Amino acid sequence: MSFAKRFVNSVLRTYFRLFFKIDRSELVKVPLAGPLMMIVNHTSVFEGPMLYVFLQPRAMHALAKKELWKNPVIRYLMNLWESIPVDRGNVDRQAMDAIFAVLDKGEIFAIAPEGTRSRDGALQRGKSGIAFIAYKNRTPMVPIAVTGFENFRRNLLRLRRTRITIRVGDVFRPIAHGGRLDAEGRQALADEMMVRIASLMDERHQGYYKTFDPTFTLTETLSLQG
Questions:
Q1: Rounded Cα–Cα distance for residues 180 and 8 (Å)
Q2: Which end of the chain lies in a sparser environment, N or C, as judged by fewer CB atoms within 10 Å?
Q3: Rounded to an integer, what distance in angstroms lies between the CA atom of residue 226 and that of residue 224?
Q4: Which burial class, exposed, middle or buried, applies to 31 when counting CB atoms under 10 A from its CB (0-12, 13-18, 19+)?
Q5: For the chain, how many structural domains are there in total?
Q6: Residue 41 has what pLDDT?
Q7: Report field, pTM of the whole predicted structure over 0.85
């Protein structure tokens, strides 16, 4: 790891420890090796950087909207972390190739299936595009639910540290059915992936998936050894 990356990561770890009380105990459930898709809920700009620095030395890459590269400081960070630029809501062939290259190297590809931030911390419906990536490679996936960041601004004004909870679910992958998934199948798979995140959250945060059937018919749970 380069000096620049070590320095930035150290600064970020210090920042998170100063402003947040983070329960990181469940991160030990994340497999230590092998290709992995990490699906995470999205409430702030902090989930990605937090997981990135506290999962070291595992290499992790994430999608990021191309607009972030317009800011020179953010562009430096995106390039340092080898993030994958993508048009908002549209994973093009170049981004797709970059994702598969990350997985082929046995590293972590992280994505928020909701596509956009939830302002109140409750889950929004997952986008079907993520299901195409998941089904094509059948790479092991791990669902992670992060709660608490939605309280950061209010706590900061009160000079309080914000409590962050991280819950990690079972490793799983799509069940092979043969052939391609149609649009309906992709959305059904995306919903099932999101239900796995919702199952790690209390009802207040489950949002769109609060009333979904928690049984899994399109995915199978794996052991940590896969």
A1: 42
A2: N
A3: 5
A4: middle
A5: 1
A6: 96
A7: yes
Q: Does the residue 83 lie in any domain?
A: yes
Q: Which residue has the tokens 């992995």?
A: 36
Question: Collapsing DSSP states into helix, strand and coil, what is residue 93?
Answer: helix
Q: Is residue 226 part of a domain?
A: no
Residue type, 101: A
Among candidate residues 140, 141, 222, 136, the one with its CA nearest the CA of residue 185: 136
pLDDT value at 89 more than 70:
no
Residue 181: inside a domain: yes
Distance CA 129, CA 110 (A): 14
Task: List Cα–Cα distances, 134 to 62, 67, 73, 152, 187, in angstroms.
Answer: 15, 25, 32, 32, 12
Angle (nearest 5°) at CA 191 between 187 and 195: 170
Per residue in 95-150, pLDDT (tens digit) is 889 999 999 999 999 999 998 889 888 999 999 888 888 888 888 999 999 999 99
Alpha helices in 72-149 (DSSP H): 72-80, 93-104, 129-137
Angular region, 194: left φ>0, alpha ψ -120 to 50, beta rest:
alpha
Question: Tokens 């996936």 sit at which residue?
Answer: 141
In whole angstroms, what is the distance from residue 37 CA to residue 44 CA?
20
Q: What is the CATH number of the domain that holds 155?
A: 3.40.1130
